[in-house]
Amino acid sequence: MERRKFFKRGTQGAIAASMMPIVGSAATTADSIKINLPENGIQKGSGDSEQWHQMGNGKRPHPDRNKTLDYEVVVIGGGAAGICAAVAAARNGAKTVLVQDRPVLGGNASSEIRVHLNGVNHLQDGLPERETGIIEEFLLLNRFQNPQESFTVWDHVLYDFVTREPNLDLLLNTSAMRANTKNGKILSAYCYQLTTELEFTINGKQFIDCSGDGLLAATAGALYRTGREAAAEFNERYAPKEADGWQMGGTVLLSSKDMGRPMPFEPPSFVRKYETEKSHKGRKLTPFVEGFWWVELGSDDDIIADYEENRHKLMGYAYGVWDYVKNSGKFPESENYALDWVCSLPGKRESRRFIGDFILSEGDLLENRNFEDAVAFGGWSLDEHNPGGIENLSEPPSYFHARFAEVYQIPFRSLYSKNVSNLLFAGRNISQTHMALSSSRIMATCALEGQAVGTAAALCLKHEVMPKGISEKYVNELQEQLMRDDAFIPKRPANDPKDLAKKASLIFASSTTSGDAKLLTDGMSRDIDGEFHHWQSDGLPATVQMEWENPISLSTIELKCDTNVKRNIMMRKDSSNEGIYRNNIPEELMKSLVLEARVNGEWMNIGAVDKNKTRLVKFKFNEVKTTAIRIQLNETYGHKNGKLFELRAYEA
Amino acid sequence: MKIVVLQIAMVFLFFGWSIPEKAVVCETNYVVEVLHPGIDMVETVDKTLVRSTCSLIEPAEFYMDVESVVCGDLQCRIDIIRIYWDELGFYKRIKLPNGVELEKAEGASFSQVDYKKMDSILSDRNSSLKDVQKYEVTGSETSEGVDALAGATIALDTKSYVKGAVWTCYTLWHWVNGNITTTIRDITGESMTLNALVNDLQENSMTKKKFALEQLIRLNFHESKVTNAVLQLKFQENLKLQKLIIDYIEQLPSVDYFEAIECLLKGENEKISVLALQSLLNTSKEPSEDFLNTLSKQLVSSNSFQQIDLFIRILEIKELVSPSINKHMLTILMQSDFILARRVYWFLSKQELSKQNKNQLQFFYNNNSEKL
Ligand SMILES: Cc1cc2nc3c(=O)[nH]c(=O)nc-3n(C[C@H](O)[C@H](O)[C@H](O)COP(=O)(O)OP(=O)(O)OC[C@H]3O[C@@H](n4cnc5c(N)ncnc54)[C@H](O)[C@@H]3O)c2cc1C
Prior knowledge:
The complex is a heterodimer.
Chain A: H1 2-9, H2 13-18, E1 23-24, H3 49-54, E2 65-70, E3 73-76, H4 80-91, E4 96-99, H5 134-145, H6 151-163, E5 168-171, E6 174-182, E7 185-193, E8 198-203, E9 206-209, H7 215-219, E10 224-225, H8 231-234, E11 247-251, E12 254-258, E13 296-299, H9 307-327, E14 337-342, E15 353-354, H10 362-366, E16 374-378, E17 382-385, E18 398-402, E19 408-411, E20 423-425, H11 434-440, H12 443-463, H13 467-473, H14 475-484, E21 506-509, E22 514-515, E23 535-536, E24 542-561, E25 590-599, E26 602-609, E27 616-636, E28 643-650
Parallel strand pairs in A: 2-8, 3-4, 3-9, 4-5, 9-20
Antiparallel strand pairs in A: 1-5, 6-7, 7-8, 10-15, 11-13, 12-14, 16-19, 17-18, 21-24, 22-23, 23-28, 24-27, 24-28, 25-26, 25-27
Helix pairs in contact in A: 4-12, 5-6, 12-14
Chain B: E1 3-7, E2 27-34, E3 45-52, E4 61-67, E5 80-86, E6 91-95, H1 112-123, H2 134-138, H3 166-177, H4 180-190, H5 194-202, H6 206-218, H7 224-231, H8 239-250, H9 254-265, H10 270-282, H11 289-300, H12 305-317, H13 323-333, H14 338-348, H15 355-368
Antiparallel strand pairs in B: 1-2, 2-3, 3-4, 4-5, 5-6
Helix pairs in contact in B: 1-3, 4-6, 5-6, 6-8, 8-10, 9-11, 10-12, 11-13, 12-14, 13-14
């Protein structure tokens, strides 16, 4: 609907509209598309369809397609971090654009690369501490829209998730090439759209670089580091003695399929022989079905410049390993297997790391440092891939230096630039050491950073400050907003002064098997550190009721239900539904709920959800003056009891 | 569960165990059907459970011989292990054949520390082993995709298993804590007299109370001395016991049921009172007007929002209002707990009231109209 409206508004008629390849809803400033006329000005372009047809006669001049767009928040890079940043900024009221240089969203997790979107998959106790918030929302959406677990459908689940968001536009196939800056501030991003020859100048107030490599940030003059810090610089136990330029590499992944009959394999000409006899035993060749993450090539120099050369080599190595599996005779079980998919765009692990007001390092993670400005968390082990990658066969492919007993915090100060005032970042390019990156690069962790910076950018607009200003004055507000939006910040209970549920005189449930209805307002939205923060009913249906002594005006009720954060729900190539992995809708998730408010002594139905798909359930309704609300939990996706973690109430 | 008692006072010969070989006449054999999720989720297997009263000082105990691991591919080493339970089906110990040690990954034997940990795992009825499925335990290390951490696909916290022996822990835990525990309790229950069960209700031990009540329900004992003893438990705070009390009274004939409800509500125990009122809300038994009258009088003094709210719902849903109930409810309007008074106000405003009562209601309204 919204999109059609947008097309109608295009001032250049049908052609101009079709040349405006923005997916989304917000209108943009309407620079028309200019045609560069030759000096003698043989033809005047009218810009209509007639002109287009004349281009074939060779008399048309070179088209110079420029477009200027105005947004409040400009997010570069549509990986997990960028999606979350853009959605968070838009939902918090900023007119936002997401610029992604490839045809699909998802970054390393897209169908082009197929890295598993891992997070805190398991702590030392063997169990996950899964991320919630925006990242969980689209992982759950995938379970509803893509039960077949197709990677290309997953791309479109993400596309749906982004394009359905009001206030957010998406530019695909568009590279941010450079920043236009003034006085240490980015004024606009110059971008090029591969499919349309369009050059965009995107003006913005806050810029968020979630592109991994960070070309925009680098051209803005933002300070950055690459390579490995010397151990002494940050007192890092696992860092090398001397600093060097080594950066973890990219990988070509592959998948194979059982064809039910013997399948021969002929390697291509660019194959590179895999030398098993020289390889460390950590380079496991089984299971071979879903490829080998250790087919990796990094660089100790300019890893970005080396990319194409490395890609060619990596493809050769990937086919080389497969050739070994198929033709060495050591894996008879591979006889019926054939390659089904081979990556053409190696996923990247490391390049620039921009410098913020704080540089996160190994000790912050291992010692679980408590940050006043914590906005995200991580917990993947310190997983540092070997220097040299597949060209250094004798070393293990990765050093899992340490595993975490509990999640660590990531401070806001490492998510914005120290010297470019309106630049934030999230993802693998944040302000951190190589050692910290070895854990925090994991995508769901990047996604939490994304939600934090998107929310922060919107707050910058609200308070007319720069990210540093948020750090100095509005961190509490940032944290409260993040937690309201279902992000979890370790050791930081929510305490939103606007939340009227905290002021209720009475809260009780119809039945309880574990926890307590009173815990729904304790500010912690998951069971953690050995403490309960939930209420669980004894069977369903069940109700929770809240009473206020004085009437209050309400227009929003928000609750957080259970999705079992002790299981991982990301899509995997092997479709695992074992152990800590689940490939379906969490059975604990509430499916149907009804919300009532008591008005003049009568219970009024003011909201109902029949097929809930999210952990954070929001009821928005016309303002009611009431003294009590009642939530009836009717059905889950399979679990016999209903379980909630939080209940909030807001005035309009 | 089907239990076949094989023989009483059977002569039994042991072999290969450290127990001295001798004939005993103090054991009873039961062939029982055991459900083990490691073997099958629905099909049971037959096992022999033995009740032993051989000790002159100790109470009876039970034991059963089981396989140490349930082995699908016949490639693992299976030992026969004897598990001992107490009379109430709680784990006591395991015993291995002479010279046999439990094995961990790659053939290493259990250390003393491992045995100790195993003992505490088996004693923990709420171990996370309870809820995991067989496939979750066996989850292969190899299915991890990219950037994998080795061996971390088991959906269990590390407290729940001995490293390298997760499958043995899983197998034994389900033998120990599976449906066999109910069988043992039922056998014990049936061997006890009514008086002994009632005595157990009065024991200090919560475990004994729950056991006795569960058996009294199962065996349908409704004598008044039993009911009285059950109702004495109304002060207890244990939720499971409270639910058993409600299960018990729901089996009673109508008159006794309503008397029991009244008695429970007198206990000033909020949790059991709420359970009793929920039972009343859901029962198909018809309460008398007298009963409701007494109840309303009693509840007025409880000052509990949840109880009075439930009582009002019972009255509304079952359409059971009466002038005297309304009169009792009116007294709540005068109480200091405003939230409660407001709940009652809205209820009464829909009732037909005498003029005087209407005035009282109006008075409340005039004083609180802003807060309703
Ligand atoms: C093979 C491999 C295995 C890995 N294993 C795991 C794993 O198991 N689990 C896990 O979670 N992580 C894993 N990682 C790490 C993880 O994938 C990265 O650290 C993570 O993707 C970083 O997230 P991001 O959002 O910062 O960047 P990305 O996911 O790379 O997203 C950045 C996006 O920005 C776009 N972009 C780049 N430059 C521009 C530009 N100039 N203009 C516009 N768009 C631009 C890119 O196309 C990309 O879509 C692995 C990485 C690799 C390569």
